[in-house]
Structures are given as C-alpha cells and as structure tokens.
Amino acid sequence: MTNPHRSHWRLNPDIDFLNHGSFGATPIVVLEDQRRWIERLERDPIEFLGPERSLLPKLDHVRDCIAQLVGADSEDLAFVRNATDGVNSVLRSFPFAAGDEVLITNHGYNACNNAARYAAEQSGASVSVAELPFPIRSSSQVIDAIDHSMTSKTRLLLIDHVTSPTGLVLPVKELVELAHRRGVRVMIDGAHAPGMVPVDLRDLDADYYTANHHKWLCGPKTSGFLYVRRELQSTVHPTTISHGANTPELGRTPFLAQFNWIGTYDPTPILAMPTAIEFLSGLVEGGLSQLMRNNHTLVVAGRELLLDALNCSVPAPVEMLGSLASVPLPAERFGDKAAVNAFQRQLYREHAIEVPVFLLGGTLPCLRISAQAYNSIDQYQRLADALRTLTCQVER
Hints:
Blueprint: E1 16-17, H1 20-23, H2 28-43, H3 45-49, H4 51-70, E2 77-80, H5 83-93, E3 101-105, H6 110-123, E4 126-130, H7 140-149, E5 154-160, H8 172-181, E6 185-189, H9 201-204, E7 208-212, E8 224-228, H10 254-260, H11 268-271, H12 273-283, H13 287-310, E9 324-328, H14 337-351, E10 353-354, E11 357-360, E12 364-370, H15 377-390
Parallel strand pairs: 1-10, 3-4, 3-5, 5-6, 6-7
Antiparallel strand pairs: 2-8, 7-8, 9-12, 11-12
Helix pairs in contact: 5-6, 12-13, 13-15, 14-15
C-alpha cells in the first residue's frame, strides 16, 4: 500500500518503522531548514551564537510559536535539550527536606524515575511508587492508585501525560486537581504529548510541565521545553549553571536568562521548530488536530490486528490511547529479558520490523507500536503475521 506522506521522511524504505515513539523521525523539510540554520551559524558564529547579538530574538520567536501551540504564556517556557533534562531541572531544584516523599508511578519513564531517586537521595527524602495496573480498565484506576499512594509526606507528584512503556494517556487534569487539594505540587513529564494529544497548559494548571519537540512534533533531536508556574520560576534552575545566573539581560526574565544560555550549544534544533509545526499543520486537511486523530485511528486499528494475532483481550480502553499502544505478549514464552531482546532482534533481522519489545515492571512482556503519518495499516498486518509465527518459536 502506497502512503502519500512517506516521501516526506528519509526513513529506510526496507524497514517497517513502527517506533516513532522512541526518538521520533524528522521530515526532510525540517532537516533542510535546520541545515540552513547551521550554515548561517558557521558563516558568522559570534554574531549568530552570541546571546547579546542576535540569538535571543530568534529563541523568543520560537518560544512564542511553542507557547501558542501548548496554551501557555511564552515567558513561562524555557528551552531544554529533552524532557529528561526538564525533569532533572525541576527535581534537582526542588526544596526537598529529610522525610519528604516524591511520588512516581511504575509506568514512569525509567530515566525520570532515576532522576527522582537521585534527587531524593541527595536531600534525605524518599521515593514512593504508585502501582498503575496494566492491563487497565479505566482511567479511574489511575486516579485511585495515586490517591491511595499519597501521604502527608508527599511533596511532589511526578506523572506522565502519556506513559512511555504502555502508551496510556493519563487523566492529568484530574490528577493535578487531586494533588493540589492535598497540597502536593505536580511535575508532568509530557515527553510524548505535544503533537499526539491536545495540550493546554493554562487549563491543566500543573506546577511544572516538560515535553520533547523531537517526538510527535517531528523536530530535530535535542529540543524540548520546560514550563514552570510563574511564582515558582525563581526556584527552578537548569542542570548546567552558566552566565545567565548573574546576567539577567540574557532573557526576558531571570528564569529565561538562566535557561537561554547553558554554555556553548547548538540552537538549530530549536530554531527549526516553526518549520516542523508548519509542516505538520499542513500535512492533512484539518491541520494538526486532524493528524492527531488520524494517528489515533491508525494505532487503534493496528492494535486490533495484533490482539487478534495474539488472541489477547483489549489491555486498555481506546479513550486512553493517543498514537501509541502496547500489547502483552505470552508470558510463558517471554519470561526474561534475554527472551524479549531476542524476539525484538528477530522481528528486525528476519521481518524488517522496528518495534520495542520489553518487560513491563521486569515481569510482563509487552510490544509497543506507534502510528505517524508515514505509517500504513499494512505494516501492522505484517507485524501481526510475524507475531503469529514467532510467538510459537522464540529464539533463545
């Protein structure tokens, strides 16, 4: 089946790439725009990179574009290299005291959960884990699990907008309201959200929110943003302290000044973001909102093929999916890490299919698919056909 959008990406035509969720994939037009920015940078590095010269207005223009997309005031958005960087900035700045708790979930991104543990260790705080089920019946189970896990010592809740391993869109607005009623601040890891699901930070009202540009917004790698509630900005600092700490003219506010310059770095992934947003907004009739709906429809259809091939029940309601979906694999055939790694290699080497296969919580084998504009339903059918064959004969 020919996909008319496939030609906009430089993906290997011999591979069924069903793993947009890991690192994204950048369209050709965005790469070309980034290349133009790189050439301008190298033609006059001092003029281009010097914050006191011409860099800051360029960053502010992109900041305005991102702010409009995610429903925020631009002065509340700082740029970070990725969502993990944003999470670390908040956690390592947070005023934890001995005896405090930070609450994470078992579906959280491993890197960010590690950051929570590190920050807690440095201050004498502790980490507690809310156990979210998978398979899952409804979002109310998420709310109940987190509600029951909060204690009088909980100071910060770190949750995903869209969980990385299971692809679940969590009820983040309800969780923010729940936490705030109990005097708990909320940090949302929105790594997958912009470009996958609607994001309105004003309505969401979280204390902190970070996201990647390189995933579902299809920007170049090492580009993301960090939102911090206005009254908390003086307490949040980048993971690299540089000139902005005592040079307020490096940004519209002291908060932005610190994040605008963290030492010499390549700003071209950030500067290419307006082109990425424009590209996605014009890819299908109906704009980015319609593209997100299309991707959701495709991943749901793809999941149905996989569930049929595995003779598996629906592991999560459709309304909790964006454009990621995970399905459990037979536990009796994939009981350890070596088995799931071998299975992933088989899918790639023998069937030319790129998907993540992993153990959720170290025990439940799962396979995750993504849906982006360049994907087609026949790719998921090929994966389903491969699953029928390979789940009976696992390479050891």
